[in-house]
Amino acid sequence: MHLREPVNRYCPGVLLLTEFEHYFLTDRKLERSGKYSNKSSGLGSLNFGKIRKEAGGPLNFISLPSYRQLFEELEEKFLQGYELLIFVHGYSHSFNKLLGSAERLHRLYGGDKFVILVYSWPSLGLPAFYAADRKAAEESARNFAIFLADLKNYAKTARSESRFLERINLVAVSMGNYLLDLALKELVLDSNALADALLDASDKVANGQSGSEKSGKNKVFNEIVHMAADLDENSEQLYSLDSGFARRVHIYGNKTDVLLSISTGIHRRKRLGLKPDPLHFGEYLSKSRNPLKPDETDLHLVDTTAVSIRQFFSPSTFSIEELSYSTLHNYMFRVDSVIQDLRMVLQHQPFEADFRKLTY
Q1: Which residues neighbour 180 within 8 Å (Cβ) at sequence distance 6 or greater?
Q2: What's the sign of the alpha-carbon dihedral 292, 296, 297, 301?
Q3: What's the confidence (pLDDT) of residue 344?
Q4: What is the C-alpha to C-alpha distance for residues 110 and 132, in angstroms, rounded to an integer?
Q5: For 131-152, what is each residue's pLDDT tens digit?
Q6: Taken in order 168, 91, 216, 269, is the CA torsion positive or negative?
Q7: Orientation angle between helical segments 130-155 and 176-198, nearest 10 degrees
Q8: Which residues on adjacent β-strands are paired with residue 23?
């Protein structure tokens, strides 16, 4: 793997009021200026480190000296009772915008329970470049798959009391779901080769072993959340529902999501995040209800339409933030009922119904 020298970087113009320390992972190219560009760093070349905000100080990026240290620090956090929340952003999302998302994730979902890792793929950060961003997501999917394969591989040597694979959760938004689905597909098809692609001989994390077990035995995630998914509704397979990946999968949708309606026009196929249809997922729902198959992934569908519309038309909602975080699309950051529901998901609370419509 290509490693970077540890550096401290200050990000001007980004003011975050919340004090926190979380992690970032990116396959954006690191320029000589110390900024992350909109270009890819290439296959197997990941930059990673911490996002730190100290009292009264600026926002800093602190690179970690080795890939192994990232996993070791996560293990220590797990031993302290924390869980990991991995966040994959959508299209038109610059690296600087991701910083705002990291702050929101900490404020709304972090608290004392979660350490957050934000994955930044090289989106151009401009709404006009949808096709270019989709291509970038396709290219980054393999890098993200490599990371997930090695995360699972490290768990084989982690201390049992850390309960490593019980503490990993993932939320993907919009086009980030396309990247996630491609990455999980890579794990299904070629998990052993993926792990070899990233860890060089001097930096193996699993006692000299390369690769990871074939998917399907140990679940990598506790919760996977598909939020406003920019995926074909009628795709043949949603790879998060493979029984080897997650204990529970949650699909959130909004019938009035304007951005996904535009995407439907582009692809000429309805997007999954417009309406998670129980009829379309009937086979998966029946499997998850089967008491004779306790290892099947538990699927939950969530309709946010009513609460998203109501909050969109609330006088208190309209602000400059609407330009960057659309209420009807980025409802996990903007709609109170969705925030409360997702908090319950991340707290692993049970739900009686596998399809629910959120209301006030």
Answers
A1: 88, 141, 144, 170, 172, 224, 226, 240
A2: negative
A3: 95
A4: 32
A5: 999 999 999 999 999 999 889 8
A6: positive
A7: 50
A8: 50, 117
Mean pLDDT for the chain overall: 80
Give residue-wise pLDDT tens across range 346-356: 999 999 888 89
Residues 6+ apart with CB under 8 A from 203: 1, 3, 66, 67, 68
Q: Rounded CA gap, 146 and 66, in Å?
A: 16
Residues 6+ apart with CB under 8 A from 289: 354
149 close to 184: Cβ distance less than 8 angstroms: no
| pLDDT, tens digit, 9 for 90 and up, residues 320-339 | 677 677 899 999 999 999 99
Work out the angle at residue 177's Cα, subtended by the Cα atoms of residues 174 and 182, and round it to the nearest 5 degrees.
145
Alpha-carbon distance of 51 to 94, in angstroms, equals 16
Give the 3-state secondary structure of the chain. CCCCCCCEEECCCCCCCCCEEEEEEECEEECCCCCEEEEECCCCCCEEEEEEECCCCCEEEEECCCHHHHHHHHHHHHHCCCEEEEEECCCCCCHHHHHHHHHHHHHHHHCCCEEEEEEECCCCCCCCCHHHHHHHHHHHHHHHHHHHHHHHHHHCCCCHHHCHHHCEEEEEECCHHHHHHHHHHHHHHHHHHHHHHHCCHHHCCECCECCCCCCCCCCCEEEEEEECCCCECCCCCCHHHCCCCEEEEEEEECCCCHHHHHHHHHHCCCEHHHCCCCCCCHHHHHHHHCCCCCCCCEEEEEECHHHHHHHHCCCCCCCHHHHCCCCCCCHHHHCHHHHHHHHHHHCCCCCCCCEEECCC
- Do 93 and 325 meet the contact criterion of CB atoms below 8 Å apart? no
* CB 14 within 8 Å of CB 100: yes
